[in-house]
């Protein structure tokens, strides 16, 4: 009888599925055209009708984090590289980089270079056990081109972070 009860509980637990949140993005085709390092995984996504709200520290010079807020005039491209952890026994072995780009839904072509990137909502994030070199940073050296034709968005970014070591320095992607 105990085994029958245990079997019924096991079947009940394994058949449950958590609810999945469906994002606002109507992604049907996302292609990452730039190379992803062999030691990790890369993903890119488009979140339509959202803009970036950047949250700074109390002094206004360091970025704490960001939020995606409803905005019909903007969309956000999210890129993430996650290094595969070789030694899972190490608690602080993780390494991740993010690139976040806000684009204007009304413009068909956007180009930013060097200091213009600071004024645009373009962020680079580095997350690891690397004191002083982790967190979100505004980009200030590089070239970013965003082209829109019909519903297709193409992003081409080449950048260099002066003070922060980086693995990813290029992002090329198309989204529809």
Could you please describe the fold and organization of this structure?
With 176 residues, the chain is mainly beta. The chain has one domain (23-175). The chain is built from two helices and ten strands; from the N terminus they run αβββββαβββββ. It has helices spanning 2-14, 115-119, and strands spanning 30-32, 40-56, 63-83, 96-104, 109-113, 122-127, 135-138, 142-149, 152-159, 170-175. The strands form two sheets. Strands 1-10-9-8-5 form a five-stranded antiparallel sheet. It is globular, with a radius of gyration of 20 Å.
Give the SSE order as H and E letters: HEEEEEHEEEEE
What is the arithmetic mean of pLDDT? 83
Sheet with the most strands, sense and barrel status: 5 strands, antiparallel
What's the tally of helices?
2
From the N-terminal CA to the C-terminal CA, the straight-line distance is 56 Å
* Low-confidence residue ranges: 3-27
Judging from the principal axes of the Cα atoms, what is the shape?
A: globular
| Total E-strand runs | 10
Number of domains: 1
Q: In order across it, which strands form the biggest sheet?
A: 1-10-9-8-5
Task: Report helical residue fraction.
Answer: 10-25%
Q: Multimeric state of these chains?
A: single chain
Strand percentage, roughly? over 45%
* Computed Rg: 20 Å
- What would you call the structural class? mainly beta
């Amino acid at each position: 009888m105990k085994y029958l009860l245990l079997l019924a509980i096991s079947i009940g637990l394994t058949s449950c599925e958590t609810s999945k949140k469906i994002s606002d993005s109507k992604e049907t085709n996302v292609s990452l055209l730039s190379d992803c390092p062999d030691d990790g995984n890369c993903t890119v996504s488009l979140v339509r009708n959202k803009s970036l709200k950047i949250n700074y520290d109390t002094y206004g010079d360091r970025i704490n984090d960001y939020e995606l807020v409803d905005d019909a005039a903007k969309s956000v491209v999210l890129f993430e590289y996650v290094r595969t952890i070789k030694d899972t026994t190490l608690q602080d072995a993780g390494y991740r980089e993010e690139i976040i780009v806000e684009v204007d839904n009304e413009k068909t072509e956007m180009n930013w270079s060097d200091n213009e990137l600071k004024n645009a909502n373009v962020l680079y994030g580095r997350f690891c056990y690397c004191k002083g070199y982790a967190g979100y940073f505004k980009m200030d050296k590089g070239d970013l081109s965003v082209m829109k034709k019909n519903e297709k968005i193409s992003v081409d970014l080449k950048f260099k972070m002066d003070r922060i070591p980086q693995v990813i320095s290029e992002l090329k992607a198309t989204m529809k």
